[in-house]
Amino acid sequence: MKIVVIQGPNLNMLGVREQQIYGAMKLEQIHAQMKDFATQSGIEIEFFQSNFEGELVDKIQECYGEASGIIINAAAYTHTSIAIRDAISAVSLPTIEVHISNIYRREDFRKQNMIAPVCTSSIVGFGPYGYHLAMVGMIQIFNEIRAMQEMQKQAQNSSEN
Ligand code: DQA
Q: Measured in angstroms, how far is the CA atom of residue 7 from the centroid of ligand 1?
């Protein structure tokens, strides 16, 4: 099982940008913690950050056939990008969106969310800990998919015998 973590614009500035909103942790530190947890859980993990919308779309498309799930913080593109929304929809993988801040308690323009309706789930307002919660949630989704596949296999076997 492999999770791809996709980070949008300005998240490479975490630890520097608006610490009162996003906290003091750097993106590398968040990723190091996620990597440790993935290793403990026997999950493969890959990280990608870009400030460019098209590169984020390309990365989501690359996940098709490669990844079992996506954790994405599309950052400012969350509020504007139909292209990222369509890419998430196209690959049809379990996808959890994370926002470090609670976007629903901030400026009105952040309340528009193009991504959430095509995601499995959204985690907002937990600070960097939201990425850990997303991993716990993704592992739960993987377990449910595995259990469902097992049940289908058993049903198929018993109908053949
Ligand atoms: C963000 C919230 C967005 O509105 C903002 O543009 C970001 C970060 C968050 O993680 O809280 O860059 O996605």
A: 10
Q: Is residue 101 lining ligand 1, measured as CB closer than 6 Å?
A: yes
DSSP, res 10: T
Instruction: Please list, in sequence order, all residues whose beta carbon lies within 8 angstroms of the beta carbon of residue 152, skipping any fewer than 6 positions away.
Output: none
Whether 99 sits among the annotated catalytic residues: the reply is: yes
pLDDT in tens, 72-120: 999 999 999 999 999 999 999 999 999 999 999 999 999 999 999 999 9
Q: Is there a catalytic annotation at residue 22?
A: yes
Q: Considering only CA atoms, which of 110, 123, 71, 117 is closest in space to residue 94? A: 71
Per the structure, the count of domains in the chain is 1
CATH number at 93 reads 3.40.50.9100
CA-CA-CA-CA torsion sign (1, 116, 62, 26):
negative
Is 25 strand, coil or helix? Answer: coil
Closest by Cα among 150, 44, 66 to 58 = 66
pTM assigned to the model: 0.95
Catalytic residue among 22, 77, 131, 132: 22
Which residue range is the domain that position 52 belongs to?
Answer: 2-160
CA of 5 to the centre of ligand 1 (A): 15
Nearest protein CA to atom 9 of ligand 1, as residue: 99
User: Do 23 and 128 contact (CB within 8 A), yes or no?
Assistant: yes
